[in-house]
Amino acid sequence: MAEAKKSRVTISDIAREAGVSVPTVSKVLNGRPEVAAHTRERVEKLITRHNYSRRANHGSGRAGLIDLVFHTLDNEWALEIVRGVESVTHDAGVGMVVSAVHDGRKTERAWLDNLTSRRSDGIILAVTELGPRHAEQLHGLGVPVIIIDSLGQPDPRVASVGATNWSGARAAVEHLIEHGHERIGFIGGPPQLQCSVARLDGYRSALMAAGLPVADELIVDGDFTHDRGQDAAGELLALPEPPTAIFAANDQQALGAYRAVEQRGLRIPDDISVIGFDNLPMAQWISPALTTVNQPVATMAAEAARMVLRHAETGRFETNRVELATDLVLRASTGPGPRA
Fold this sequence. Notes:
By secondary structure, this protein is an alpha/beta fold. It has helices at residues 2-7, 11-18, 22-29, 37-49, 76-92, 105-117, 132-140, 165-178, 194-209, 226-237, 251-263, 297-314, and strands at 65-70, 95-100, 122-126, 145-148, 159-163, 184-187, 219-220, 245-248, 273-278, 291-294, 321-324, 327-329. The chain contains twelve helices and twelve strands. Helix 2 (11-18) crosses helix 4. It starts with a helix and ends in an 11-residue tail after the last strand.
């Protein structure tokens, strides 16, 4: 029974009993020098007492494993990220561990324990945010971290891969304006996300460049889900003067808008045009096929994986920020506006 109890001790338990952080325990486990002697001795004693399994010595070169971490896995965007990373790990003969971080300190501790217990070439985060506490904890593990579509300006110790959100959004709205639309609704993403802010700014920029007003009632916050897209589109269509086109800040919300349009007996694009953002595979299979901004999601993920593997070989990132181009994919969901 005693041995079974010892085997269940986690790095968080060691840290809590020692009165230090998880990264500090990780530094001791990995033999890193930047730990005070008395702290190291206290942690070492607890490791020995609890018979905690140390991580294997990293040595040099690749570990042959990449961690891919999501906040949630219940959408097609996440599957595209997995597909992009897998395309690189498969060719490189490297393994991939996929996990999700759920809300709550207990699950976060378990997640950090799992990361610490195995050797990894790097961690790719496809999550909505990376706060200072998480950044510090991950930095303490001594493993390179790359975040996809970061929240705000990422920690300087964390590399990031993104896309040209502003110019992609502006191109989408310019397309609608060129086709005679002047009242264009916008369904945004979570307002704290950098990509959401950039897409909203691109929307506003296109309207202002065309001499059109930016009407507050036409801008609705979203959360990148189908349900919110449906509700937000319903709000826009219920206005006394509804928009003649809707630009949704991602494809999932655009599909939700399709449902709202259908519920009101309207047709796309005859009665209202709809544009999305992402160009997920489903966009070309719905009816009518969705005009959308192609964000190279899988390519972004593949680049993040290549950055991890290059870091494993060289010990550094060539650049901490990569931004890939977007482009507008024209399909059947947009048509002439009333002034075309």
